[in-house]
Amino acid sequence: MPGEAGRILRLHLFHLLQTLSPHTAELDVGVPARGLHGEAYRGHVFWDELFVLPYFSLHFPEIARSLLMYRHRRLPAAREAARRAGAAGAMYPWQSASSGREETQEVHLNPRSGRWLPDFSRLQRHVGSAVAYNVWRYARTTGDLGFLHSAGAEILLEIARHWSGAADFDPGLGRYRIRGVVGPDEYHDAYPGATTPGIDDNAYTNVTAAWVLARGLDLLAELPDFRRTELAEQLSLDDGELDRWEDVSRRLYVPFHQGVVSQFEGYGDLAELDWDAYRARYGDIRRLDRILEAEGDTVNRYQASKQADTLMLGYLFRPDELAELFARLGYRLDDKVWRSTVAYHLGRTSHGSTLSSLVHGWVLARQKGADAWRYCEEALLADVADVQGGTTGEGIHLGAMAGTLDLVERGFTGLEAGADGLRVAPVPLAEIPGSPSRSASTATEAFGCACFPGGWPSASRPRRRTRSSSCSPANGGSRCHRGGALVPLVRRLSRRRAPRRRAVGAWPARAVRNPGGSPCGRSPSGTPGPARGSGARATPGAGT
Q1: Which residues does the annotation mark as catalytic?
Q2: CA angle 431, 335, 427 (to 5 degrees)
């Protein structure tokens, strides 16, 4: 892909393969949120493999597997964390280092007000669902049943056990509820005026928990008899516990208001923010939480999100998959409700994270929205233009970088890999900005067809070039062009172009396989403070 967008994508690929490569596959390393390029987040591991693994699963499955084994080696620490919290199963931490213990800071600094504030981001229990999702999707993409039936099964089943235990039955609702958590939004860590942290029934948390429980049951059903018996004995699983998994997976509560999926219970009762007034007063309001706190207010009072929360569901699942998942829970989520939900939450997001534009680009691509490319552009500029205002100097954002590669490769082409081969369902874009033909009808015409595995070899071994049957026009696919993946037709980012760096365009993707350093692993609120028991000094950070 030539042009400015292509150079930025190659820069992103360079940073990704500098941090994680075949040289690190045999090392005990996770996915550091800031790569190897700065001291932000103290090298901690968060949930960024959720955005990194899709690329590696297609190109370097051995690296993807090694990152999942990193999580498996920390399964004992996750079990111990659950035990200490009086919970069951495995509870993976929001921030962790080599020990696998929770390392999230307990306070963070608001540089606008100069005040140190309590940090409750450790309540982001949804990280466990991300780990389980990665296990399942990796196995479905690569066909690595050996991993899924061994280490992967242990991870997924213990996370499912945790969610089953975390759900309490509410007789009034006739449904199960998960209380006292924080969602991906990260702004809302308590109800207005509450003395205890956490919110109840975060839609993303509850829906992904239901998904994990359902996949745990599916996995047990597909295991060979001897392995199922072995795991049941090893994990002390019995029919009574599995019956509860089935019940919880079908009756977890998902809040709605005004005909849309709520971010959490009570979200629709919060005040509306005057977005235009705050933009006029401050200009950049990405870190709205800091602005409001400096004014003596709190973002907890408003329907305002830092980044995609409910809409993260649209990143993980296609609309048809979401509809099926909600139907299992007894809710109707048709196209109209989902589109209304997307519009509602997108208009109430400040995009205070580099992941925000990336996720919304995915959501709009899957919704066949012509604005998807605009959000992709924003994600491409996140680090080269330092759109967060000073955070890139403390380290690049590896999840967003990997996510842009994946969005262009899979999101716009609708590429999916599964047991039946590769499937392509191109996104019909209204136009491809800056392309020779501005009326390209599909993303496949714009970027090229990615349905030849040989188009993106593993670099560690060649692949036979085969044509997927789904590429046939008769099967609803597009006519293949033997140019491989992602033939470039994107515009140069002229109006907001980043400074040219000679080195950016100098490294072809296939050459970026040299560095093999060991990654060390972000404060969602952007300001690291002392971790519990670490003795670390709290220092101000700059956001995600």
Answers
A1: 186
A2: 25
Consecutive sets of 10 residues in the chain, 544 residues long: mean pLDDT of each?
84 95 94 89 94 96 97 98 97 96 95 96 97 97 96 98 98 98 96 96 98 98 96 95 98 98 98 97 94 96 96 96 97 97 96 94 87 89 88 92 95 87 78 44 45 33 36 35 30 35 32 32 38 37 43
Position 131: which residue type? V
CB atoms under 10 Å from CB of 370, counted, come to 13
Residue 339 backbone dihedrals phi, psi, to 5 degrees: -65, -40
Which one, of 96, 120, 94, lies nearest residue 106 by Cα?
120
Q: How far is CA 105 from the centre of its chain?
A: 21
Which phi and psi (to 5°) does residue 170 adopt?
Answer: -105, 105
Sign of torsion, CA 175 176 179 185? negative
Terminal CA-CA length for the chain: 27
Report angle CA 517, 523, 526 to the nearest 5 degrees.
115
Do the beta carbons of residue 426 and residue 412 sit within 8 Å? Answer: yes
C-alpha span between 432 and 134 (Å, rounded): 31
Q: Six-digit token pair at 151?
A: 């280490």
Please list, in sequence order, all residues whose beta carbon lies within 8 angstroms of the beta carbon of residue 184, skipping any fewer than 6 positions away.
124, 126, 204, 307, 308, 309, 312
Nearest to 347 by CA among 269, 414, 291, 263: 263
Structure tokens at 115: 């005040």
CA distance 281 to 498: 26
Question: Two tokens at 258?
Answer: 């005004």
* Euclidean distance between CA atoms 318 and 300, whole angstroms: 30
∠ Cα 107 109 113 (to 5°): 135
pTM: 0.82
What span, in angstroms and rounded, lies between the C-alpha atoms of 255 and 159?
23
Q: Specify the pairing of strand 416-418 against strand 421-423.
A: antiparallel
